[in-house]
Amino acid sequence: MLPVAGLASDLPPLLSSEQFHPTDPQKARIGQLLFYDKILSGNKNISCGTCHHHDLGGADGLSLGIGEGGVGVGPKRTAGTGDARIRKRIPRNAPALWNIGHKSIRNIFHDGRLSVSDIYGNGFNSPAEEWLPAGLDNITAAQALFPLTAQFEMAGNPKENQIAGAVHDRIDAAWPIIAKRVRVIPEYAEMFEAVFDDVSNAQDVTIVHIGNALAAFINSDWQSFDSPFDAYLTDQTPLPQDAAEGMKLFYGTANCASCHAGPLFTDQEFHALALPAFGPGRTRRFDPMPRDVGRMGESDALEDAYRFRTPPLRNVALTAPYGHNGAFATLKSVIKHHTDPLKTKSTWTRDMANLPNAPWLEAIDFTIQSDTREMIRQARALDIKPIDLTDAEISDIEAFLHSLTGASGNTRPMGRPDTVPSGLPVD
């Protein structure tokens, strides 16, 4: 730990490759191809990389994503046309993948609905409960399986394809279908046989092997700890003056480090920030309202209402927009929101949300804002107190957050492949 005079807390320890789950480069190569291969989606029209693209810092640049049925990548992605058009926006902002292979990660998703646990005997507490297969190497491998079975993300709608139909029966009914799609492709079969000790022929390939390959790629390719801040921690290479002032505020009077703590800049806890509400929402099955109840959707505990997981901040400058629903387009605007959430919420306007045009969904996009009682409930759930910061101080904190951008942030070791074994187009 590196103490810094005048700061309220010590700076975090250094990150290093030894702190991450070990990965096999050959498995990572399979994972790289699968990550960008649309063969994993129900209608073969979207990949993991569509919403977590290397050109966009591992995210998609949208407030709420356009999943299955959309066309294109990033801010230029459209909502589709005709029968193939999307039926619902993705309820939450696509989280970036930076450093999720760190051994300290114990929960994933904005509401933490996937966590390390022995409750079901398979290593995880997840939406799949006891039906999540055993043998997944780490939490990244488990996480990789859920978008594949999510209707509006990658699976598609019931009756459109075999995968979507199977998910409608039970989540684990879809994974063998996906695995078969992969293993009947000769190039994939050969790669799995060559790399995985327990795969002697194509019939042995299961969704567990696919998840572990995806995790090997994600955990290795999205490691990042070569930022100016890391150089400062290593040998006290000076930060730019504004970033240095921002660091003092971050760890001092601005109190940012009370939640954005440790080497990943997250306490992995859940906090309510009174972000502007919009979109289809994500709530419990019996709740028809287009609202997002956050952690409560997983825990069913009233005290968890409207609380969301603290996002890690490394390479945060590469992953706009910000917030669980991408309500804020810039670092400066989301920092300002933290200084007085209710004030900035009252001045927030709908055009600040980056939502690709979908006229058939417009009636849903902002309808929750007309529910006055719900707006009062959300405003009452607030875990941060207003703090007075000047515009210059906000700019300094923004400069410090830019100092968390890795020198190789936009140039990953493996990146996006030009082609994939299925022969489907690569986004």
Give the secondary structure arrangement, pairings included.
Layout: H1 25-35, H2 48-51, E1 107-108, E2 114-116, E3 124-125, H3 139-145, H4 151-155, H5 162-169, H6 175-183, H7 186-195, H8 207-221, H9 228-235, H10 241-251, E4 270-271, H11 296-299, E5 308-309, H12 331-339, H13 341-347, H14 362-365, H15 372-380, H16 391-402
Antiparallel strand pairs: 1-2, 2-3, 4-5
Helix pairs in contact: 1-8, 3-8, 10-16, 12-13, 12-16
Q: Care to describe what's here?
A:
With 427 residues, this protein is mainly α. It has 2 domains: 20-221, Cytochrome c-like domain (Cytochrome Bc1 Complex, Chain D, domain 2, Orthogonal Bundle); 228-402, Cytochrome c-like domain (Cytochrome Bc1 Complex, Chain D, domain 2), CATH 1.10.760.10. It contains 16 helices and 5 strands. The chain has helices spanning 25-35, 48-51, 139-145, 151-155, 162-169, 175-183, 186-195, 207-221, 228-235, 241-251, 296-299, 331-339, 341-347, 362-365, 372-380, 391-402, and strands at residues 107-108, 114-116, 124-125, 270-271, 308-309. It has a 3-stranded antiparallel β-sheet, covered by helices on one side. The protein has a two-stranded antiparallel ribbon with strand order 4-5. Helix 10 (241-251) packs across helix 16 (391-402), helix 12 packs across helix 13 (341-347) and helix 12 packs across helix 16 (391-402). The longest helix is centred in the middle third of the chain and has 15 residues, at 207-221. The radius of gyration is 21 Å and the shape is globular. 49% of the residues are buried.
